[in-house]
Design brief:
Pfam family, one: DUF58
Largest sheet: 3 strands, parallel
Strand order of the largest sheet: 1-2-3
Protein name: DUF58 domain-containing protein
CATH class of one domain: Alpha Beta
Radius of gyration: 18 Å
Length: about 150
């Protein structure tokens, strides 16, 4: 929301998002970053909510992320699937062992892409659904406390 005061921001955000309907579409990261750079002159905090899917990020976000992180503070936030952690501890039978191996691979892939994002100068918040909002708030407060914002 551009040009909104602190008191107007939440109401404008709610009004803007109320008519939105979910859809499974590929993000156009290049267009999104271009729009942010066009509209925002001052260094700002940009929070991107996305999946930590390595293939999708490598093809879309990672190539254009340096443009954004050079001018703004960027946080990539992702909701971790709690079921993956549950599957990773299973060892009761052969199927559970295969599920555990797949879950561990998924967790390793998420850690690897998060590491690549951090090396690009981006903060990463990867938390389960119940913790994502507090984790984002904590990251914001930590950035504020250390003078990064």
């Amino acid at each position: 929301m551009f040009g909104a005061s602190r008191t107007e921001l939440l109401a404008q955000l709610v009004d803007a998002m109320a008519p939105l309907q979910p859809a499974l579409v590929e993000s156009d990261w290049r267009a999104m970053i271009s729009a942010i750079l066009r509209r925002t002159r001052r260094r700002s905090l940009v929070v991107l909510l996305t999946d930590l899917n390595a293939t999708a990020l490598e093809e879309g976000l990672l190539p254009v992320l340096p443009q954004l992180s050079a001018k703004h503070h960027v946080v990539v936030a992702a909701v971790a699937d709690p079921r993956v952690d549950e599957l990773a501890i299973g060892r009761s039978d052969a199927a559970a062992v295969y599920d555990a191996a797949a879950a561990e691979r998924a967790r390793n892939d998420r850690r690897a892409i998060a590491s690549r994002l951090r090396h690009s100068g981006v903060d990463v918040v990867d938390a389960p659904p119940s913790d994502i909002a507090p984790a984002l708030a904590d990251r914001y407060l930590a950035m504020k406390a250390t003078g990064r914002l």
